[in-house]
Amino acid sequence: MSLGEWLLELSERVPGWTVVALAALLFTLLVAGRLLDLLETMATGVEQEVRSVNVTGNQTLGDYMPDYGYRELARWVWSVIVTALSAVIVLFAVVKVATAIVRRGEEW
């Protein structure tokens, strides 16, 4: 089975509203991503202030707060989810438009 045949078969099974629903979900994810960026910026500022608090002499709280890299991992996972959803939306949109062009004038 070629890619074209597979896409044509897929387009017959995927309802048209799916593309709109996935686009709405992508928009929601993008807005939520911006809100998470704002929250992360605020948390970073608070964390820097907490790290600079003197504990004893020349030691600060930052010396006792290890960085495990969870922010980078979370940012990577978020970008993978948004990119995959974007690819699915583009694929479904192309398939639905191609099917509409190919099947124009046929009765269902």
Q: What does it look like?
A:
This protein is mainly alpha-helical and 108 residues long. It has a domain of 63 residues. It has a two-stranded antiparallel sheet. The chain is rod-shaped and about 80 Å long.
Distance between the termini: 24 Å
Count of strand segments: 2
Subunit organisation of the chains: single chain
For the residues shown, what is the average pLDDT? 80
Roughly what fraction of the amino acids lie in strands? under 5%
Q: How do the helices and strands follow one another from N- to C-terminus? A: HHEEH
For the largest beta-sheet, the strand count, sense and barrel status come to: 2 strands, antiparallel
How large is the radius of gyration?
24 Å
Which residue ranges are poorly predicted, with pLDDT under 50 across at least 5 consecutive positions? Answer: none
Shape assignment: rod-shaped
Structural class: mainly alpha
The helix content is over 70%
In which order are the strands of the major sheet placed?
1-2
What's the helix count? 3
